[in-house]
Amino acid sequence: MSTYNPPTLEKLALDALLRKDAINSSNLDHLPTVLFPPLFLEAFNGRHTEILKAMVAAWAFPYLPVGALMKTPDVEVFQAVLDGIDILLTQNVSPRIRKLQVLDLRDVHQEFWDVCAGRKDEVCSAKTGNEKHVAKHIPRYALRQRLKVVTDLSLGFRLQHQIYLLKWAQQRKQSLRLCCLKMKICHFSVESIREILNIFQPNYIEELEIYTKQVLSFLGCFAPCFGQMRNLRKFHLREIRSRNSVGGVFRFADVKNCAAKFLSQFSKLNYLQHFCMNGDFFSSDNMKELFRCLKSPLESLSMTVCQLSKSDLKQMSECQRLHQLKHLHFDGVVFPKSCPKSLRILLENVSDTLQTLQLENCRMNDSQLNVLLPALGQCSQLTSVNFYENDFSTAVMEDLLQCMANQSKLIVEHYPAPLECYDHEGYLILHRFSQLCRNLMDTLMARRQHKTITFATKTCRYCRSRCIYDKETRLCRCWQ
Predict the structure, then answer these.
(1) Residue 303: DSSP 8-state
(2) pTM of the model
């Protein structure tokens, strides 16, 4: 026997409003505040563009997180939202009276709509005080007088709605403030970046990712723009190559000056907490400049395929701004054989804060690891370690596991297969790999329980994957 669930009065009211071709401000003047969010959701999902315009212009809250609804950008709906802002700006209403203060185009604050839609066991009704529930999820920065449009930008990925937004904001610079918090730059010319940065203030940018192959010309020209990003907290410099396209020869003639010009801008970044870079384009002198210019304590430092000299590591170990690191990642960084002491000092300096440590593909040997073991034993906050692609013998691996066995907070552990798993030509001996890794696993399990622990071979030169042991042996494609 089926059960009939009649629609609520709220649902009937929303359906009646949506059946109209448009809603004007006079209709919305008498609409209860509690009905604004559910009506907006219905209009947005149903692509009722005229209703969206009117609702944006008459929005009853200081904050409108539209980006959380735009999983797949719809240019027509996006344009309707901006048209609603235009209507709002042309109204003869004082900013002190206008309710909407921030239009957020980022994919954040989904909880605002969850509450309004009656999810999370919260019912949208005036009797349950829904306005208070919604108010809890309005960011503090929304409670301001000047209208702001907050967004993220990916320069190089030419999305139609992004281009439309930039043109729209440029024409309205005098009446609103466009704020970009996250910017991704991918093979984009510096001239175009400068034009875009003129539309909004670069000091709003908190996260920046740069992907470029033209490292010398780009970094040198981009330096003044970078120095304006005074509130930058995360900076990723990725996929940059210093090889000349002709002959694959390294060119260092202009690297020092261009890199120094760029790195000097770090002295203007007072809030930088996360820095990630890959590439071997910086010389030793440039790396020293980087560590000298840091103005705030870093929480994470990640370096991939970088050249670090003995003096670089010494500078790192002495840099006070690195003594509060929570995440230290080196991937493809080959350390000079004579400088494990500086790396040990760095680990000792961060022993009270370090949570994740990655020393992957660093070609470290037994003697280098032995120097680090006392410092590793002091890192009591570690939750994740990765030692893949290093050259450790079984005996030294046992010492490493004994050291890690005392780390009670470890959740994820990745270790390299011992050198004895390979023959004199570097080929894997499968049965020896399984047996040695099983013994090492037993050594660790005898001391404490673990959640995720793996032993892995070096990357196969043919299929580019690994054989992995985690209580059982999982083979790369070449062995299957």
Answers:
(1) E
(2) 0.84
